[in-house]
Amino acid sequence: MSIISRRVYRRHELRRLLEPQTLALIGASQTPGALGTRTLANMSTFPGILYPVNARHVQLGGRLCYASVADLPEAPDCVVIAVPRDAVLRIVQDCASRGAGAVIIFASGYAETEGAQAAADQTALRDIGRACGMLIVGPNCVGVANRPHGLHAAFAEFSPSPAVGARIGLVSQSGALGLGLSQAAEHGTAISHILTCGNSCDVDVADYVSFLADDPGCDVIALVFEGLEDSGRLVEAAAIARAAGKRIVACKLGDSTAGSAAARFHTGTATDGPGGYAALFRAAGIISVTRIEALLDTAAFFAKAPPASAPGVAIVSGSGGTAILATDAAARHGVPVPQPGEATAALLRVAIPAFGSPRNPCDATAQATRDPDSLRRCADALLADPQYGALVIPWGRAQPLALLTLLDELAQRHGKPVCLGWMSQRLEGSGAAEVEAHAHLALFRSLDACFDAISQWHGLASAMKPA
Amino acid sequence: MSIISRRVYRRHELRRLLEPQTLALIGASQTPGALGTRTLANMSTFPGILYPVNARHVQLGGRLCYASVADLPEAPDCVVIAVPRDAVLRIVQDCASRGAGAVIIFASGYAETEGAQAAADQTALRDIGRACGMLIVGPNCVGVANRPHGLHAAFAEFSPSPAVGARIGLVSQSGALGLGLSQAAEHGTAISHILTCGNSCDVDVADYVSFLADDPGCDVIALVFEGLEDSGRLVEAAAIARAAGKRIVACKLGDSTAGSAAARFHTGTATDGPGGYAALFRAAGIISVTRIEALLDTAAFFAKAPPASAPGVAIVSGSGGTAILATDAAARHGVPVPQPGEATAALLRVAIPAFGSPRNPCDATAQATRDPDSLRRCADALLADPQYGALVIPWGRAQPLALLTLLDELAQRHGKPVCLGWMSQRLEGSGAAEVEAHAHLALFRSLDACFDAISQWHGLASAMKPA
User: Fold this and answer.
1) Which of A11, A176, A434, B401 has its CA 20 to 30 A from that of A357?
2) Does B213 score more than 70 pLDDT?
3) Does the CB of A177 have a partner CB in chain B at under 8 Å?
4) How far away is chain A from the Cα of B363, in angstroms, using its nearest Cα?
């Protein structure tokens, strides 16, 4: 496919796609399990006008059904095309003629397939859109959801999001990964948007990042992608996000030679090969995670953390074993864990039993898990010490945590994040969702993910310092 | 503390401790929340004779209560000491005099504390035991559980274990980590034993490994520890496990300089410093995980996997994105992902849609997730190919999995493990526990953990080959 460079789409250019007033669904159906049936059901929360389109029905789901796009009483903002591949090209042409703002194409069998014809068919779709300014999402995608707008234009069932916690705008080239990640909502992670683009013949992940950067409905952007036709647009989008004070946390797929080859067969994407994006991420201030399971915890941390005020990290725990694990993880990621000064140590000494350790890591002993005041006093002393920019508390056991409000208040008062390292293998156990719901507490189910995030947070702080 | 070397305890030497017929609890109580109350409640499943000991009660929980160990009608096999530190030494002496087989000491304030007296007090406890052959667990520990035996001699509440799946015997020096890990039972991981030892003044993790190696009640041993007085005993225990055909998967704490220092203040343990155990693990055939969150998934894999028959791994997925992630993870861990031969590729081609990839990784497309027969045929073709020793299936979404029985049968028939990489962030979602329950399917919530395990599995296969 030839590379035709353009600027990244800005939020106002994407509003007919992502904040439509009118939505049409081609291939709307009531056949159980059909793509058009599932998509129609997902659209039930849409607050604007919805037009089902299917020549075989007069009415669907209580709504008047239209025979074709041409028959719609107005030009639709966004058209979702849930029909087999063979019918797609003609429908896209019809949408362009009717003045649609955007189309979303689910069908597969384009640039991700072997053969010149498949790639040419994808280019043909894009050219129709380009000629009239109609946005195209896909082909080979599962759709989009913009929760604050009530939009769920996808055949995939995205889980409803909790109302509290850092609101993560999720951008995923892969629909399946977007779907799998979005299921974090079911254990308490707040996910405001799920934006997928599959083969990205027109709208790509950089455009979505640009949209979310200026959208007040999310606090941070989590990005999963294989590659970009023009990586310069991601740099542009990152600049928009930086200007808006919003962080981007990215997981780049296809970062190995074999993985890169696999990506060509997935979405027809050239991935720039191993390590190609590392320099771009650094330059653009994009946080990067290697392990996708760390993506959402890391994104929520960056939504909650103020800028780092000091490179040192304090660790306090009710268990010596978890304190050691945290110290090891800090060392693996080059995060300093300095010893407290004498004043801080004196405060710790009176807060914990004699058999605890008034050091860093501070083993407050199991007493701290039973006596919230002991842990609160330790946390207060460590957060007040200017050599510490953050506090990490490895938490051994899934249980309701009475002291979360106290910790959240301390984090806010000291202007420093408090990270709870969830050590229990009851991964969605009691207490976890409550941590996520607090504005100044970050939850990490891996201490390595926690200190990797802190290490990059420090890196950002250094990069932002005036020269 | 001086090092007095001894052989590792064998299973028959540890039976009065871990398979007692009679159990006494010093400090038994009915005060809500008290250590002795919680421990007594945990002992309710004990099938042998239980003697509560507390001079202030005549009867506790429907059982006759004794004033002291000396008053017991017989020499107890195992005595749990749930009293404050000051009373411990005298009681341990009484237990020795009464002919107890073993004591478990919860109290803290020994070698993990600064000062020579605390360390000397711990040595005094050990010396009492050594003089009469009475085993000592602790001090500074939370106790032990041996589920097949109905023993729960701990103040910590360990979650009940499901009845199916690979039975993991968990050995943890740290009580809090043992407790946190054991909570995996609540989402479907089968945990047969939880054996903690805290300061390990006598019985240590090597002894527990030796016990579990010869205990038919567990299939694999998961080990968490900071250090050992005599690491040679771990080598001995590993040899016993190898002879029994049982794998050990270890997570070593204190593997950084700062973490090692912290360990001295936790259980008074010298950890051998950074990297000190890597060579020992290799030599002893012990599998090692750096990230504790990978411990139990890895242990279950090794319980289920037959010896590796080939170094290549096949990947099949219903989603191209997850297939790429798996390929990247394989590359990070040096696991080869060779392309299928022509015969295998021909079988794949007819099993998947034209827009899928009949390669390795095999993108069977979303159709495979809706059509179990498509995925079954792919899996069968790949498992039959002699260049593949295992099959990895990244699974995108938490949902009931209709094809698990089919996959389990294929894995068994081909004598190769099938690993499901759980890509959903619904970490305990629908389908996960069902995977764990199957005898030939391994669940990994991290693709890195999956390929790290496979890489070490290959290493074991090479090491076991005749020269």
Assistant:
1) A434
2) yes
3) yes
4) 7
